Amino acid sequence: MLSAQPKKWYSSDYSLRDAEGRHVADLGLSSWRDRGAFALGGAEYRVRREGLGGPFVLESDGTVRARARRTRLLGCEFEIEFEGDHYTLKKRSVWSSVFVLRQGAEELGTIGHVAWYKRDAHVDLAERLSPVLATFALWLALLFWKHEAAAAAGA
């Protein structure tokens, strides 16, 4: 299990830690665009949007590692292609902030808030998953929560 905490009170940058509290990665979301980056295992990864409203692309050293496209306009569901495999990241329900990662019908784990009033997140995904995929899925969930919070603040 992993946990993600904002680096500062109102920051879009997060620190990812393992169950023993060891630092695993740093994640960043852009303040004003759907892009960001994370550093994991000595490698730098960049996330950007392909075109206007296109899929999210995960790149490292100029190579595309993964793509995630939103499959529903009003709901929250992403179809992720990572190293030839296909996954689905979807909110458990309209009323829940928990995301479920699946490969086909198999549930591989969840990503959710620690508490309703905190931006901290817990990541409970299958150990066999690539840390890069787990971090990318977390980045997508954090981005969605950021958009939800911005929409609620404007309401």
Query: What is the overall silhouette?
Result: globular
Radius of gyration equals 14 Å
Strand arrangement across the biggest beta sheet: 1-2-3-4-5-6-7-8-9-10-11-12
Uncertain spans, ≥5 residues at pLDDT below 50? none
Structural class: alpha+beta
Alpha-carbon distance between the termini? 34 Å
**Number of separate helices:** 1
The sequence of SSEs as H and E is EEEEEEEEEEEEH
Proportion of β residues?
Answer: over 45%
Helix content: 10-25%
Total E-strand runs: 12
- Chain oligomer state: single chain
* Main β-sheet description: 12 strands, antiparallel, barrel
Give the overall average pLDDT: 88
Main features:
155 residues; alpha+beta; twelve-stranded antiparallel barrel
Describe this structure in words.
By secondary structure, this protein is α+β, with helices and mostly antiparallel strands. Helix content is about 15%, strand content about 45%. The chain contains one helix and twelve strands, in the order ββββββββββββα. The protein has a twelve-stranded antiparallel barrel. The chain is globular, with a radius of gyration of 14 Å.
Topology of this structure?
Layout: E1 2-6, E2 13-17, E3 23-29, E4 36-40, E5 43-49, E6 56-60, E7 63-70, E8 77-82, E9 85-91, E10 99-103, E11 106-113, E12 121-125, H1 131-154
Antiparallel strand pairs: 1-2, 1-12, 2-3, 3-4, 4-5, 5-6, 6-7, 7-8, 8-9, 9-10, 10-11, 11-12
Can I get a quick summary?
The chain has 155 residues and is an alpha+beta fold. The protein has one helix and twelve strands, in the order E-E-E-E-E-E-E-E-E-E-E-E-H. It has one helix spanning 131-154, and strands at residues 2-6, 13-17, 23-29, 36-40, 43-49, 56-60, 63-70, 77-82, 85-91, 99-103, 106-113, 121-125.
